[in-house]
Amino acid sequence: MADKPYLPDGWRMARLGDVLKLEYGVSLPEPKRRPGRIPVIGSAGAVGFHDHPAVEGPGVVVGRKGSIGSVTWIEEAFVPIDTTYLAVPIDEQADLLWIYHLLACEDLSKLNRATGVPGLNRDDVYALKRPIPPLPEQRAIAAVLDSIDEAIEGTEAVIAAAERLRDALLHELLTRGIPGRHSEWRDAPGVGTIPADWEVARLGDVAEVVTGSTPPREVRDYYGEQTPWVKPSDLAASRLVSTSEEYLSEPGVAVSRLLPQNAVLVSCIGTIGEVAIAKLPLCSNQQINALIPSDATLPSFLYWVCLARSSYLQTIASKTAVPILNKSAFSSVSIPFPSFAEQQAIAAVLDGVDEAIEQARAERDALQWSKASVSDALLTGRVRVAHKS
Question: What is the per-residue DSSP string for 111-148?
């Protein structure tokens, strides 16, 4: 006979339908919403506003259709629409915040029954059997998990603020230069306002432009584990790239040119304007143009100036089903070009902010991992939380 699951003293195993109910949201299509400040909550979160609430907060909303199984905590008064369920405790057997954390840790999307439009049947949720702690311990568990959520939210706020600072600095430094270093500026055609002593250069003048390639797929010997073979999706994750989803073998290197460390990679087919720096020698596919900087060009400065011009790159790409920025047009793009010393100063500022953002992202990811681990331990009773009865 199978062993019974471990339950701490005072806990019980019960169906979720014994401790909570899922009530249907209200029908409030967009044309019927009146101007107001009450958030309207759909299966994926806020979808608009209305002038009158249906529920006084706080509340827990579960996606019923569309983004099924998503779980949202709403602190204020709100309107849950009819693509959602409202989770409500039964007879004070469950703490609302504990319900939120419990449901948020469930993969409710696996309960999808519908074909076509996804749908969550509440009876399937009710049938789930889970360990139920006493109400005081539920509240203590919820408080711990909520504190981790607050730390995650705080870290995300730091990331957002640092990203805004980086974007503002990028614009300021590439139009005004290092503060206190310049007193005169000029309007440079194709570039905009720059310090009077800066030059305007074309990408092809300050770096060798190399277009990536794709070895024939039918020749499996070209593909292996030796050399990262980078695609635009690999550029989106970080300023520095050294790994990829696919690799080439040594024979493949002869087909797709090996790019040196510090080459600047820019996506120029499909997704236009993703930018990264090669952290080690690698190859790129045909959707990427690589810039191998000259001795007068700092790679990290070239990265930042290409990132600043990414929107412009999108405007000059071909307006075809798959946008293409060919090598000739890419090479002719004008950029502001200060002295090497000022390139270094500009890049140092921007690199420093970006490194702080990366560190904050790592801290957020660590907190999210910790939340998943702690949630499992607390919600199953493997780890207990001190609480007042």
Answer: G---SSS-B--HHHHHT-EEEE--HHHHHHHHHHHHHH
Alpha-carbon distance of 49 to 362, in angstroms, equals 34
Q: What are the residues whose beta carbons fall under 8 Å from the beta carbon of 184, sequence distance 6 or more? A: 195, 196, 197
> Are 83 and 43 within 8 A, CB to CB?
yes
Q: Which two tokens stand for residue 166?
A: 């980086």
Q: Are strands 240-241 and 185-188 parallel, antiparallel or unpaired?
A: unpaired
The answer to whether the CB of 175 falls within 8 A of the CB of 195 is: no
**Tens digit of pLDDT per residue, the chain (389 long)?**
345 667 899 999 999 999 999 999 999 999 999 999 999 999 999 999 999 999 998 999 999 998 899 999 999 999 999 999 999 999 989 999 999 999 999 999 998 876 566 789 999 999 999 999 999 999 999 999 999 999 999 999 999 999 999 999 999 999 999 999 999 999 998 899 999 999 999 999 999 999 999 888 888 888 888 899 999 999 988 899 988 999 998 777 777 789 999 999 999 999 999 999 999 999 999 999 999 999 999 999 999 999 999 999 999 999 899 999 999 999 999 999 999 999 999 999 999 999 999 999 999 999 999 999 999 999 999 998 877 76
Global pTM?
0.82
- Domains of the chain by range and CATH? 12-132 (3.90.220.20), 199-337 (3.90.220.20)
In the DSSP assignment, the letter for residue 36 is S
Cβ-based neighbour number of residue 196 at 10 Å: 11
